[in-house]
From TrEMBL:
It comes from the Bacteria. Residues 43-291 form the Proline dehydrogenase domain. Keywords: FAD, Flavoprotein, Nucleotide-binding. It holds the Pfam family Pro_dh. Its cofactor is FAD. It comes from Evansella tamaricis. This is Proline dehydrogenase family protein. Pathway: Amino-acid degradation; L-proline degradation into L-glutamate; L-glutamate from L-proline: step 1/2.
């Protein structure tokens, strides 16, 4: 059986990545979950999703940034993306990873890049989501978030339910717009739950805590059981639909996305774009067996 760990290993294997990148965008399955390689591709995809009642957030894919030049170039793309979103007048936020902005190169460089991005977002009344990465970047990400929020309230992050410390971090971030996810990286038993049922239980726990303390909550899941439970929970506790949204990945469970939106809930689609698609794609395959079947079907449908 192809395992989650196998795809997580592949997501960080540079040799396999280099080989895959030669045929990647031509591989039908990749094109079903990646909006394209350019900002224009992303904006066009967002327009089509907006027309069906879906909100969006776009993410310029990029990992393994090791130089100041690469980090600044990535920040430039983020700024240009926000400008393009404003010009097109689409319903869309921006998501990003701090490592793509130089977190592993120089913290001050990363902070300065984020300040430039947030100032652009503020100018256009938009919101920026800092995606959470692996555990080794967690403290640095939260420290920088707290610093940024001293000047900007249009920035939030994500909390991963598979980490033991997720509830504590969530409570420390009360009042902040958070994206709540189960988690997509391979983490050690010292810091993370290893059993899926434990992750699922903690996921529902942190969602309910954040909702009950009045904070805006982005519930990122493809699990219809979780969605149904949260819909019942919010009705039971009179939590308004304006306080939360559901989120799904572009290309996955499209019928359910539309169904949720048609029921009057905000449904936001996470739309990745860019040439550096490999790590993202492999982590999606690792997350759920259904995703692996989806990829194999795409391969043999060509």
């Amino acid at each position: 059986m192809i395992t989650r760990n196998f795809f997580l290993f592949l997501s960080q294997n540079k040799f396999v990545k280099n080989r895959a990148m030669k045929w990647g965008p031509k591989f039908g399955t990749v094109r079903q979950v990646i909006a394209g390689e350019t900002i224009a591709d992303a904006v066009e995809t967002v327009k089509k999703l907006n027309e069906t009642g879906l909100s969006c957030t776009v993410d310029h894919l990029g990992e393994f940034v090791y130089s100041e030049e690469e980090a600044i170039a990535s920040a430039d793309v983020c700024v240009k993306t926000l400008e393009a979103i404003a010009e097109a007048k689409v319903d869309c936020n921006l998501s990003l990873k701090l490592t793509s902005l130089g977190l592993d190169v120089d913290r001050n460089l990363c902070r300065d890049n984020m300040l430039r991005i947030l100032e652009t977002a503020k100018k256009h009344n938009n919101f920026v989501r800092i995606d959470m990465e692996d555990f080794s970047h967690l403290d640095a990400t939260l420290d920088l978030l707290h610093e940024l929020r001293k000047s900007y309230d249009n920035v939030g992050t994500a909390i991963q339910a598979y980490l033991f410390r997720a509830e504590k971090d969530l409570r420390d971030l009360k009042g902040i717009n958070l994206r709540l996810i189960k988690g997509a990286y391979k983490e050690s038993p010292q810091v993370a739950y290893q059993k899926q049922e434990e992750v699922d239980k903690n996921y529902l726990n942190i969602i309910k805590i954040h909702l009950l303390n009045g904070s805006y909550t982005a519930i990122a899941t493809h699990d219809h059981n979780v969605i149904a439970e949260i819909q019942s929970f919010t009705k039971e506790h009179n939590i308004p639909k304006e306080q939360f949204e559901f989120q799904m990945l572009y290309g996955f469970r499209t019928e359910l996305q539309k169904e949720i939106a048609d029921d009057g809930y905000k449904m936001r689609i996470y739309v990745p774009f860019g040439e550096d698609w490999y790590g993202y794609f492999m982590r999606r395959l690792a997350e759920r067996p259904q995703n692996i079947r989806f990829a194999v079907q795409g391969l043999f449908s060509k």
